[in-house]
């Protein structure tokens, strides 16, 4: 049941993020929403650059540690966080000096990035210490606070800055709640930090996070190129930005949930048990990851048009609906390249391989986009080209996983593909009147439950 609670917490976070996107689409003018969207994208990029290496190192080293070693490693992780936050503040300060007119936006983005990084690291230390249930409850509380904070800010003042300020308040309250549940962050002492630990974190974590930075550059590159074509103030740019904001969350959140549940066990078995035991644990992770995301892809294709008609502002709906299938396919492939196929290299601490794979994806997508621009193709064609390039890189990057011998059970994977196709085909059925929409949702739920039950994916 703890696994179910953890998955539910991530689904709730995804649901809250979707609600936030729809709400801000109504509360903010298109230009303000585009500014907010770009600022969030830059903030997330900065968070990956500054803090992802600490997260990755913490997950890899803390998952198989205990006792005094775990206490020392946690202290070193919090010290690394403080050093990275200081470096990020210095860089942001130079950015604010160079663009004085955007100083308030840069300052808010910096504050959101730092507080989010601290909260994420604290929640991660709680999860890998075996307290999955409290960590899951904390993530539900933080998602609620972020939603309320940003909506209240946007409702009161209707600007990108007010929405960012609401997000900042939500992260601060989330960090405070985590410190009440677990006081290790409040008890952090720099004196417990070991230089050898920081060096080990940097050697592994910075290379691994470098791959994440390159992977994150891909949707940012696509975003800026397409917004540059339509103009930041256009409804087409706002609709496209909303589709990117909306559809990146479900896949990344779901895979994060699955890694939260299963990755510590895989690492522990890889470090302390037999190769066969580690392979079995990795196979369970791949089963849950591939099947659940395939079903999610089918559900997004089937129901996003209905959601758009109900929740997306009419001015943004045409461009939003036009690109959602291609955006969903791209993010399905992109998140699996970034997370699922990176599992074995992470276990083997082959971080340089991750960077090479990410760089190949970025280079190939950039080449495809240049061809698309020369041919004057639209946003949908650009996204499909990015998906094709990502799929090609996935095929080339699957070698370590195949050699390790861990991959989804063929029968279960086939049933998930068929189920996803059946759910996606529901888009062809009418959604009005309301009983039709409810019938479609019931059919999708039945297929999902049947596959999860047959594959025992939740290990209930």
From TrEMBL:
Transmembrane in keyword set: yes
Compartment annotation: Cell membrane
Coiled coil: none
Alphabetized UniProt keyword annotations: Cell membrane, Membrane, Transmembrane, Transmembrane helix
InterPro entries: Poly_Biosynth_Transport
Transmembrane regions listed in the UniProt entry: 7-27, 33-54, 75-97, 103-123, 135-157, 163-181, 201-226, 285-304, 310-333, 354-371, 377-399, 411-430, 436-458
Membrane topology listed for this record: Multi-pass membrane protein
Superkingdom of the organism of origin: Bacteria
Name recorded for this polypeptide: O-antigen/teichoic acid export membrane protein
């Amino acid at each position: 049941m703890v696994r179910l609670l953890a998955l539910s917490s991530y689904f709730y976070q995804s649901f809250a993020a979707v609600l936030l996107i729809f709400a801000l689409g109504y509360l903010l003018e298109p230009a303000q929403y585009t500014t907010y969207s770009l600022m969030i994208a830059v903030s997330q990029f900065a968070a990956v650059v500054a803090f992802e290496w600490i997260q990755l190192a913490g997950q890899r080293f803390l998952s198989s540690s205990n006792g005094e070693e775990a206490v020392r490693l946690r202290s070193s992780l919090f010290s690394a966080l403080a050093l990275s936050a200081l470096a990020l503040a210095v860089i942001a300060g130079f950015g604010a000096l160079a663009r004085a007119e955007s100083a308030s936006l840069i300052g808010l983005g910096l504050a959101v990035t730092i507080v989010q990084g601290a909260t994420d690291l604290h929640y991660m230390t709680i999860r890998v210490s075996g307290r999955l249930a409290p960590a899951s409850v904390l993530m539900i509380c933080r998602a609620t606070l972020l939603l309320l904070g940003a909506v209240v800010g946007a409702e009161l003042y209707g600007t990108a800055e007010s929405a960012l300020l609401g997000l900042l308040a939500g992260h601060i309250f989330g960090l405070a709640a985590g410190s009440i549940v677990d006081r290790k962050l409040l008890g952090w002492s720099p004196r417990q930090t070991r230089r050898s630990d920081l060096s080990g974190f940097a050697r592994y974590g910075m290379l691994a996070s470098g791959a994440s930075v390159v992977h994150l550059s891909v949707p940012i590159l696509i975003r800026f190129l397409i917004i540059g074509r339509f103009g930041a103030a256009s409804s087409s740019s706002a609709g496209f930005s909303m589709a990117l904001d909306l559809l990146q969350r479900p896949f990344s959140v779901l895979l994060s949930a699955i890694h939260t549940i299963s990755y510590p066990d895989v690492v522990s078995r890889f470090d302390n048990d037999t190769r066969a035991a580690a392979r079995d644990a990795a196979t369970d992770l791949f089963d849950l990851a591939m099947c659940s995301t395939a079903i999610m892809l089918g559900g997004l294709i089937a129901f996003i048009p209905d959601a758009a008609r109900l929740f997306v502002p009419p001015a943004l709906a045409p461009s939003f609906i036009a690109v959602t299938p291609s955006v969903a396919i791209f993010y399905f492939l992109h998140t699996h390249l970034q997370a699922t196929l990176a599992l074995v290299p992470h276990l083997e601490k082959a971080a340089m391989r991750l960077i090479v794979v990410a760089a190949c994806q970025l280079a190939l997508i950039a080449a495809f986009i240049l061809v698309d621009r020369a041919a004057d193709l639209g946003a949908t064609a650009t996204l499909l080209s990015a998906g094709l390039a990502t799929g090609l890189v996935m095929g080339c990057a699957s070698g370590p996983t195949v050699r390790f011998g861990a991959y989804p059970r063929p029968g279960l994977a086939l049933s998930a593909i068929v189920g996803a196709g059946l759910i996606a085909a529901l888009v062809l059925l009418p959604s009005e009147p309301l009983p039709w929409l409810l019938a479609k949702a019931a059919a999708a739920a039945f297929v999902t439950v049947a596959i999860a039950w047959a594959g025992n994916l939740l290990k209930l």
